[in-house]
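Subject: sequence -> structure tokens, single chain

Hey, anyone have a minute? Need the predicted structure for the following. Not urgent.
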Amino acid sequence: MTAATGQGAGVAPRPGQDLVPHTVPAPVFRALARARGGATAVDLLRSGQLSKRMLMMRALRQAAHGHPEESAAQAAYRRLVELNRRDRVAWREVMLHPYLDEGLTRSLTSLERGLPTDLRWLEQLAADPGRRAWHRVDAVSDGMTLELRLADRGPFREAHGHELTEPLTAGQAQEWTRTLRAAWAVLVRRHPWHAQTIAAGLTTVVPLRPEPDGTEVSSAARRAFGAVAASLPEDPVLLALTLVHEFLHVQLGALLDLLPLHGPPTEARYHAPWRPDPRPAGALLQGTYAHLGVTDFWRAELASGTGGERARREYDTWREHTDAAAGTLLDCGELLPAGERFVTELREAVRRRPGPAGALRGRADLVDGLRDGGSGPETPSSCTPP
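Reply:
Had a minute. Here:
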């Protein structure tokens, strides 16, 4: 699978077809860099994920040859091919299960090292995406719909790196539903660009436990397209912020699967204004992109007149931090040409979205004010920076 910033967009082929190259059209690339990709960008990234996962399934079938796991791998592959012929929608549901990538990666790694691997999870997933056990959340605001599932059980969710909750009780699921619906209303009414993107691409929320001291945490796993994990804050505005911030991580990870933006990891480390420890270039890029969203979020809160002094303080802080980190990336020498273009666009988005002088008059003004704007935040108390 290849990708380039050119014209045309790849379409995921059916199993048995030759895999097609995926391209990232220049306007979509620019919009992604500015956190304005919307449903068009999500569709392109999803197409890339389908091709990637098909390649991984083929690789697993080949890697399992001659191993005890061969029959299970072959059976799962055949079941997916048959499902694709019989029910294309159900096939996509399986292939886009957020933790299929993580599970295949672990299984391939074990086989390549000559270690035993249990593929029963894959057989079960091929027969049933497993989402029937997850709580479903439907949120509607001003005619825009968000459909999610709360993944409070199932393998590979520990990839998010934080303590998972126990399976939710009915009362806990209702609390999550209420807060998610309130957060969705915040996004639709004050952050329309991010609402469009999240509605198109976010399918799964994994409930996490907060830190022992009560600090809220959140995470996007590199191999979990479509999912974010978070503890449940009391304030739906902070949950809206978390969804914006973490889904930008998801988008950037999927873009990196199509188009490398930086070279191989090096020993060099760089200052991240939001962390005490220096970061590799790749991690700094992830953090900078997500904090474009942080900056954008607080700008919109300030513009709408709802955020008060906190919105002004957060906006000023994250705008300065994100601009400084973008400059560090452009000076580090580790970005590839596409990465330099990406970060240049990112920094332009930060700089060309000036802080509003006062509240906007209404939602139409807010949409116009954000048309060339940025992304959403995390505060030190609500998210764990990458």
